[in-house]
Each structure stands twice: as structure tokens, then as C-alpha cells.
Amino acid sequence: MIWKMVFGALGRQKRKNRLIALTVGLGVSLAAAMLGVMFDVGDKVNQELKSYGANLSVVPRGASMLSELYLLTDEGEGQARDEATPSPAGLAEHFISEADLYKIKMIFWAYNIVDFAPYLTVPVRIGEKKTLLIGTWFQRRLDLPTGEKVETGMTALKSWWRLEGQSGADDDAAGVLVGQRLARELGLQPGDTFNLAAGGQTRIAHVRAVFDSGGPEDERIFAPLALAQSLAGRPGLVERVEVSALTTPENELARRAALNPGSLSRIEWDTWYCTAYISSIAYQIEEILPGTRVKAIRQVAESEGAILGKIQLMMILLTVLTLLCSALAISNLVTAGILERSVEIGLLKALGASNLSVILLFLLELFLVALVGGALGYGAGLGLAQLIGFSVFGVAVDIKPLVIPLTALMVLAVTLLGALPALRALLRLKPTEVLHGK
Amino acid sequence: MRDILEIKAVSKIYGAVVALRDISLTVPQGQWLAIMGPSGSGKTTLMNIIGCLDTPTQGQVLLDGLNLGALSHAGLTAIRRESIGLIFQEFHLIAYLTALENVMVAQYYHSLVDENEALEALARVGLRERAKHLPRQLSGGEQQRVCVARALINHPKLILADEPTGNLDETNENLVMEILSQLRASGSSIIVVTHSQEVAAHADRVVTLEHGRLAQDRLVENSASLANEKILTLSPQRDLGAPLRPNIVE
Ligand SMILES: Nc1ncnc2c1ncn2[C@@H]1O[C@H](COP(=O)(O)OP(=O)(O)O)[C@@H](O)[C@H]1O
Ligand SMILES: [Mg+2]
Asked: Which residue among B11, B12, B13, B14 is best mutated to probe the pocket of ligand 1, counting the most ligand atoms within 8 A of its Cβ?
């Protein structure tokens, strides 16, 4: 009986119910998207911050000059154009020699260098698909002149990556790791073989693993450095090195030194040089690898973390506001619906329906509508989350299972909040006032 | 014979308006009472108080011996559910439910729905064949008969009808009156508010309200409803303001 009444009533106020569902849906979609992005992106960034990822980036001095040069050509026509194409002699200025990399482990703070990995990027084609192949050391054994043996490479540097398959091996010349999004697009799986084309060359590559980095790397291929070098025609060269170093927190001295080491007094300089500040380690790497520039990247990541926290706070506030707006909009619709049906409600009361049973009937109706709206909103929210993930954070968003019960809770809260004024109206409605009204 | 209703010195005051002024009235079980009076004389107000939809400002109402003034809001709702059958001038059927379902709504809030019993009730008002029709597919008279079926489905102690034929033509008015007469014959107590002398003629007794006062109280001789075996007499010591006590002589 109660279902007949609920569905009968639902059918009667189709327009209003559609509007209510839409309102709930809109609010919930936004809220679900925010939650999805918040949990996932927050997780990924935090993971990256917590794992000892790289905090220094070594690039050739020429690389930055080159980009400055391009900038010049864009703005002021002419004068720099000739230099835009580097001469073969200048080539070394735009790359770092692979053979010199071991030196990074020989600086004053050598023991603070936890790990490092070089990179060389080559544009490649797989069938029609264009992407980037990045050569690196996965887990390279180095024999230092001191007689020490160390192991270093990307595997340890990107400890948060999720691999499906084997980890990369430097001596496996044709074995590559494929980013999960690229793999999905190309239908590649661990164990598959595919053709790589770069410049005029074609190579066969074996997929050893598919990885999920949670970042833009998911669209790329990682390969042993030698493969990239041969595809790029740049044997023995790398374009960038990421270094993970244990550092002492920055202080006033470190900040001054980072701006200009020359401004320090002799004693200050000694103190700075012999402390594992990120700036002094950077300085020492620049010393030992002439022609390079070393940039601290962890600091960027840390401020990113701070900004992320603020963005998350903003998202929470926005979510709450959105839900409040939804509740407000619903409350108007619902109250209007009650007023329209006051005679019917008065009649039920006159027939002996208790306040509670009338409220239950009405909430049942509303929840059914809200459920539909909420489900649609959740679906839309998933899409919206991807949109936000890609456009704002540049990553795909995995919706955490927690989002579903939270969304359900939000639907419940919004609906109940929106129903409050109507519930008051329901309680106050007197049959005598509506049944004899002429 | 018990009294189904005993109203003692009831007044209802809305701000400056005195809708009912010191009304006293006793209705024995099984009686059909008609309430007449000009518009605004307090008929609906009185019906609302009897029907537990409203409470008096002063005075006492006893329904089947139970003092309504002692009941909470929920208690009044329960009495309405258990003991009262309501019929309205404007029918008030739920538009999206069929005739049958409209009757079943009353069952639902009373106890359990029983489709067969609901169909029987519709049969009693001659609408067995229209059970699956929606109110808008029924004529005014048919709709009012559905309301009667709804009012009687839970075997109420008292049926209250506020101008039940006010919106009906003569044919339908007669049909509804016939059904009420049958109910009366089977022992139900009925109170009907009406403007129509013909309707009042079916009752056992007619009281008239004027400006919220009880102006007249008379028995209907040869009540059209049935050959009345019970003879109703008014108590002889009747003076203004004193409760009217009809006595029944078997
Ligand atoms: N809720 C109310 N508030 C104020 N005045 C009311 C209310 N209900 C009824 N009245 C007044 O009480 C008087 C009796 O009304 P009512 O019982 O509806 O008369 P009837 O049904 O005999 O036409 C009228 O003057 C009416 O205006
Ligand atoms: Mg009236």
C-alpha cells in the first residue's frame, strides 16, 4: 500500500521530482568529484613526498641557455637565430656525459647521496602513436675509483611506482617498462613485443612491466639508457640526472648561500660547505660535474604539498557550500511540493495517519528521488573527477572506494537538511485548515 | 442504550469570533442526527471537535464515554483512526489512487489492508465494478460514494459527514442518502451537517445552530430513513442553556 502511495505520488509530481533529482545530482556530482580528486591526488602527492624521491635535478648549463635562446627568438627577431641550432661542438654543453656520473658519489657529502638516475628522452612512434621513450639506469652497479661498489638507479628513486611484471634491468637491451595509460591505449601487457620507430630506425622491444606512477610518466616508456642513446644517436650522453640526497633543513645561512655563495664570509662558507644543506650538495655536484646546473626540486615539491593542502581545504569548503546550496534549493522545491499536496496530507492525517507515518511516507518519496539523483550525480562526478585530475593535476584519478559511502552519506545529509523546513510544514499542517477550505 | 456522544458546555473561540457558545448535546448510540443552520453558524467547527480534528476552548466532549479533553494529539489521532468515519463536502479522494486503493488507504492507517473487505465496502455503495477507476474517471456522486465506503471500511462508532451532498445533484444526493439510511438501519451512529430539508428529513433528529448557539432541537417524525421503532422524546424540564437530554424509550 505504502509503495502504491509513494509511486503514485512520485508519478504525480514528475517535473518537481526531476528538478529535485537534478539538484541533488548536481550537488553530489561536484562533491563526489572533489572527494575523488582530494583523496587520490592528495594520496599520490603525499606518497611522492614521503618516499625519498629525488630532491635534486642535474641539467647541462647549455640546456637552460638553449631554452633562453628560443625565448629570445620568439620575442626579438633575428640576432639569436643563428645560435638556435647548436653546433656539434656545442652539443656537449647540452648533455652530460654518462661516464662522469659516478663522480656524483664522490663529492664531500657522498654518503648523503642516497640514489641517482640519469635520463635521456627520445621521441618515438609505435605504429601511429607518438610518445616519448626515456632511457635510464634501472639498477646500475658502479665501481668507484675508491674501490667502493655502489648500486643506483631509477628503481629505488621511484619506489612508489606500482609495477605489474618484472622490474627493469639495465642489461636487458630491448626490455622496457610501459606506462599504464599508454599500455591500455595500445593494448600492451607484460610479455608483449612491439616495434619502436625513431628517426630512421626501428627496434623490437619487449614489455617487461606495466607501471603506474600516478603522473604524466604513465604515458611514456622507460628503457635501458643504451637503447635510448642508440635511438637518439647520442651514445654516452644523458640530458638530466635526478639525485636523491639526505639534507639538513635549510636555515638563514643556507638561503643566503643558495642565492650567492660568493656573499658568504670565509667561516660562513666553510660552515655552509660542510653542512648537508641542499644548496651545498648542489654546489658540490656542480663543482664535480662542470658545465652542469643543479636545481633543488624537493623544495618545489614541498611547497606543492603546502599548496595541495590549501587546495584540499578549499575543495572541502567548496564541497560543503555546494551541498548546502543543493539542500537550500531542494528545501524550496520540497516545501512547495508539500504545500501543493496539503489537502492530501490533511486527508491522511484526518484518516488517522500519525505525524510519524506521514513524515516517513514523505521521506521515502524524497529519498527515492534523491537516490536517483545521487546515483546520476555520482556517475557525473566520476567523469568530473577525471576532468579535474587531468586539467589541474595532470594525473588520472582512481576513485577510492571510500568515496561511495561518503557520497551516499552526502545524499542523505543534503536530503534531510533540505527536507527540514518541509517536515516542519508537515507537522504543522492541520487537517481542519485544508479539508474545509473553500 | 449508551450515549455515543456527550457534549458538555462546549465553546470554541477564535480571537474575537465565538464560533461555538456553550453547546451541550447528547447523542445516543444508533441515532442519525442532522445539524442545520446558516453559513458561519459553527456547524463545521462543531463537527471538527466531535471528529477529534480540533479541541474546544471550553467544555468537555465524551465520545463513547471517553473524555477527549484528556487525550494528547497522538491520542486524538488514534481515536480518529479507530472510531470516526469522515465524509467531506469536497470528497478528498487521492487523485493518483484507484477507488479501491482510496478505500484501502483508510485500512492501511487503521490496521491491515484487506482487498476483499475493501471491495465489499465498494459493493455496499454500488461501485464494485468501478474499483479500478481513478477518481477523475468517476462522477461526483460516485466519488462521494467512494468516500462513504472509505468512511465505513473500519466500522467506525460514529460517521461524520459535513455537507456530504452539497456538491451533488438530486439523483446522487438520493443515492448517498439511501446508503446512509442503510448504515443507520444497520446500527451506525451518524451526524450529518446539511442545508437541505430533504436530507434532514432522513435523520431521526435535527439540531439547528445560530451564531454558535444551539437554537433548536427537534425529533423528526416519520423519519424518511426507516420506520423508526425507537421513539425519541426530549426531556421535559428543558430550559435555555441546559443540556438537551433526549431519552429513548424502547
Ligand atoms: N480557524 C478559524 N479561525 C478563525 N475563525 C474561524 C476559524 N474557523 C471558523 N471560524 C469562524 O467560526 C465561525 C463558524 O465557522 P464554521 O464552523 O466554519 O461555520 P459553518 O460550518 O456553520 O459555515 C465563522 O464565523 C468562521 O469565520
Ligand atoms: Mg461548514
From this structure: B14
When computed from its CA atoms, the radius of gyration of chain A, rounded to whole angstroms, is: 31
Kindly state the DSSP code that residue B220 receives in the 8-state scheme: P
Strands A140-143 and A149-152: antiparallel
Q: Which residues, including other chains, have CB under 8 Å from residue B57's CB and lie 6 or more apart?
A: B11, B12, B13
Between vectors from CA A182 to CA A177 and to CA A186, what angle results, nearest 5°?
Answer: 105
Question: Mean pLDDT lowest for which of A89-103, A130-144, B224-238?
Answer: B224-238
- Cα A252 from Cα A104, distance rounded (Å): 26
C-beta separation of B68 from B61 below 8 A:
yes
Q: Check pLDDT > 90 for residue A81.
A: no
CB atoms within 10 A of CB A230: 16
Q: What is the pTM of this model?
A: 0.64
Least confident window among A65-69, A280-284, B159-163: A65-69
Other residues' Cβ atoms within 10 Å of the Cβ of residue A109: 19
User: What pLDDT score does A213 carry?
Assistant: 86
Which residue, among A351, A357, A432, would best test binding to B if mutated, counting the most B CBs under 10 Å from its CB?
A: A351
Rg, C-alpha atoms of chain B: 18
CATH superfamily name and code, B3-245: P-loop containing nucleotide triphosphate hydrolases (3.40.50.300)
Q: Give residue-wise pLDDT tens across range B6-39.
A: 999 999 999 999 999 999 999 999 999 999 999 9
A contact residues 336-375, partner B, Cβ 8 Å cutoff: 343-344, 346-355, 357
Which residues in chain B are contacts of A348 at CB distance < 8 A? 105, 109
Question: Which residues in chain A are closer than 8 Å to B51, comparing Cβ atoms?
Answer: 350
Render pLDDT for A345-356 as a digit per residue (tens, 0 to 9): 999 999 999 999
Query: In this predicted complex, what is the ipTM?
Result: 0.87
Distance CA A183, CA A287 (A): 41
Smallest Cβ–Cβ distance between A354 and the set B53, B77, B104 belongs to B77
One DSSP character per residue, A116-164 reads EEEEEEEEEEETTEEEEEEEE-SSEEEE-TTS-EEEE-HHHHTTTPEEE
CA–CA dist B18, B194 (Å, integer): 21
Q: Specify the pLDDT at position A78.
A: 38
* Among B32, B181, B182, B159, CA closest to B85: B159
Q: Is the CB of B223 under 6 A from ligand 1?
A: no
Instruction: Give me the residue label for grid cell 665501481.
Output: A143
Closest by Cα among A312, A313, A327, A329 to A411 = A327
CA distance B30 to A235: 113
Which cell is A162 given?
Answer: 606500482
- Domain positions in chain A are 2-47+305-435, 56-245
Distance CA B221, CA B171 (A): 24
**What is the rounded CA–CA span in Å between residue A278 and residue B55?**
83
Tell me if B45 CB under 6 Å of ligand 1: yes
Contact by Cβ (8 Å): A113, A107: yes
| CB-CB neighbours of A343 under 10 Å | 18
Mean pLDDT over B165-178 rounds to 90
**Strand boundaries in chain B, DSSP class E:** 3-14, 17-28, 32-36, 58-63, 66-67, 84-87, 158-162, 189-193, 205-210, 213-219, 231-234, 246-249
Q: How far apart are CA B141 and CA B175, in angstroms?
A: 8
For residues B151-159, give the mean pLDDT: 94
A200: three-class secondary structure by DSSP: coil
